């Protein structure tokens, strides 16, 4: 029978050191609030029930934490009296009788399911408390995990440690798993007879052992246990997250010429044999199919790039952009809610918004789909194998038929039939010698102004 588990996620911090007007767990990592990363890790560990302990911005935090398949109940921590007190804010949820209680933190967004599963396995193997630790060559400031004969005998804070204990490099992350059948009893025994008068979760080690229980520890990579309290630490976490995801993508067959310059979102999907050039930024919702090429300095968000399509350099794909197989969006182009058919080309200096472009069509430089009249947005539809001349303005709603030809510099306001030529510009008129007269007049005016001065 599968063991049941409740994850208690502590997310009630005040963001004091973050210097922020909002809860620190709402700050994004890879375009997603860090609290959502934590819930995703919990879900990956097979846990579908979460007690979210909140403080400031409680409603916003609960909303940000919500992901599919996870049942979340929020519990308000009205006072800040230590981690043990925070966990007991979720007393009602803990009392439901889960096999395992997993305690984690909303400001540790790099955690993955591996250590969480290992902690739960420790409970299944008979431990009453399992602490998640990490090894570091910079242990100063962390509580040390002291182990004897396979059991964790103490978490020694640095100020209380002996010189020998300070040499220990296995440190407390703060995350732990507790036997769900004993959790409330153990938690209720935590006292506050300390300098700060707070209830510390780490006291569970001594309490459980004093009652004859077994306490053990499992290891996690140091990076995964990185917490966030300041903007500087947020930047470090972002860097770690990006490095990890880039590495995963390159191992899956994606080529990145200068990976350290590519920035991914939490949900970026890039297929095998895609090529990503330097200085590309992906916002949420980007899907790049196999064999696509994203040239340098492009920004892609909420867009789909099909197999063999090319983007950029210096292109922007906004939400709703959908590039067909072998299509092209070139330099200094922007596409928003626009669908390009197979082999269609938008080569340079062009805006495509709220438009459908048929297969094989060519959009000349400087073309604008005029989709917004100040109140409403309308659609431009361009058929297959059409040719739109440079510097054309297509005023939506308008339809350009298959094989139609739009003369350069045209302003198109009515539909163009298939295979028709449309000219929407004034007739050119040449006036011989007039340029000379204009120059002479301009020079005379300039001279008069100078003499007057």
Radius of gyration, in angstroms, nearest whole number: 31 Å
Mean pLDDT: 95
Distance between the termini: 98 Å
**How many helical elements?**
10
Helix share bin: 10-25%
**Molecular shape:** elongated
List keywords for this structure.
453 residues; alpha/beta; 10 helices; 35 strands; elongated
Question: Any chance you could write out the topology, listing elements then pairs?
Answer:
Elements (H helix, E strand, L loop, with lengths): L4 E7 L16 E2 L2 E2 H11 L4 E6 L3 H8 L5 E6 L6 H6 L2 H4 L5 E6 L7 H12 L4 E7 L8 E5 L2 E6 L6 H4 L3 E10 L3 H6 L15 H7 L4 E6 L10 H21 L3 E2 L12 E2 L4 E2 L4 E2 L4 E2 L4 E2 L4 E2 L3 E2 L4 E2 L4 E2 L4 E2 L4 E4 L2 E7 L4 E4 L2 E7 L4 E2 L4 E3 L9 E3 L4 E2 L4 E3 L2 E3 L4 E2 L4 E2 L8 E2 L11 H19 L1
Parallel strand pairs: 1-4, 1-6, 4-5, 7-11, 12-14, 13-16, 14-17, 15-18, 16-19, 17-20, 18-21, 19-22, 20-23, 21-24, 22-24, 23-25, 24-26, 25-27, 26-29, 27-30, 28-31, 29-32, 30-33, 31-34, 33-35
Antiparallel strand pairs: 2-3, 6-10, 7-10, 8-9
What is this entry, summarized?
Helix content is 22%, strand content 28%.
Report on the architecture of this protein.
By secondary structure, this protein is of the alpha/beta class. Helix content is 22%, strand content 28%. The protein contains ten helices and 35 strands. Strands 13, 15, 16, 18, 19, 21, 22, 24, 26, 29 and 32 form an eleven-stranded parallel beta sheet that branches. Strands 12-14-17-20-23-25-27-30-33-35 form a ten-stranded parallel beta sheet, with helices on one face. β2 and β3 form a beta hairpin. The longest helix is centred in the middle third of the chain and has 21 residues, at 231-251.
């Amino acid at each position: 029978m599968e063991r049941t588990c409740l994850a208690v996620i502590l997310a009630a911090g005040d963001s004091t050191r973050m210097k922020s007007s909002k809860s620190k767990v709402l700050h994004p990592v890879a375009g997603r609030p860090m609290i959502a990363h934590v819930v995703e890790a919990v879900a990956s560990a097979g846990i579908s029930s979460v007690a979210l302990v909140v403080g400031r911005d409680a409603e916003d935090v609960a909303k940000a934490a919500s992901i599919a398949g996870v049942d979340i109940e929020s519990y308000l921590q009205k006072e800040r009296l230590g981690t043990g007190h925070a966990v007991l804010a979720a007393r009602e949820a803990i009392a439901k009788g889960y096999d395992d209680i997993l305690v984690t933190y909303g400001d540790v967004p790099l955690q993955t399911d591996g250590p969480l599963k290992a902690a739960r396995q420790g409970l299944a193997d008979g431990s009453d408390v399992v602490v998640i630790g990490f090894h570091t060559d910079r242990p100063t400031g962390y509580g040390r995990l002291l182990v004897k004969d396979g059991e964790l005998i103490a978490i020694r804070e640095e100020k209380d440690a002996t010189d020998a204990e300070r040499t220990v490099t296995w440190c407390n992350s703060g995350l732990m798993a507790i036997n769900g059948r004993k959790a409330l009893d153990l938690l209720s025994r935590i006292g506050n007879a300390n300098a700060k008068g707070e209830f510390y979760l780490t006291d569970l080690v001594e309490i459980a052992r004093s009652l004859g229980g077994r306490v053990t520890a499992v290891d996690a990579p140091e990076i995964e246990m990185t917490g966030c309290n300041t903007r500087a630490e947020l930047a470090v976490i972002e860097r770690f997250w990006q490095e990890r995801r880039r590495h995963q993508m390159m191992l899956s067959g994606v080529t990145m010429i200068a990976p350290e310059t590519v920035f991914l979102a939490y949900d970026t999907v890039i297929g095998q044999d895609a090529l990503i050039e330097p200085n590309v930024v992906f916002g949420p919702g980007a899907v790049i199919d196999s064999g696509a090429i994203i040239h340098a300095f492009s920004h892609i968000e909420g867009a789909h790039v099909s197999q063999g399509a090319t983007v950029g350099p210096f292109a922007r794909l906004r939400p709703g952009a959908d590039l067909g197989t072998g299509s092209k969006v070139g330099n200094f182009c922007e596409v928003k809610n626009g669908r390009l058919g197979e082999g269609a080309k938008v080569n340079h200096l062009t805006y495509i918004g709220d438009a459908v472009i048929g297969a094989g069509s060519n959009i000349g430089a400087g073309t604008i789909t005029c989709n917004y009249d100040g109140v409403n947005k309308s659609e431009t539809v361009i058929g297959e194998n059409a040719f739109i001349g440079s510097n054309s303005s297509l005023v939506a709603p308008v339809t350009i038929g298959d094989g139609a030809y739009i003369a350069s510099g045209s302003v198109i306001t009515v539909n163009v039939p298939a295979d028709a030529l449309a000219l929407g510009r004034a007739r050119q008129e040449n006036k011989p010698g007039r340029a000379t007269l204009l120059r002479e007049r301009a020079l005379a005016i300039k001279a008069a102004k100078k003499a007057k001065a």
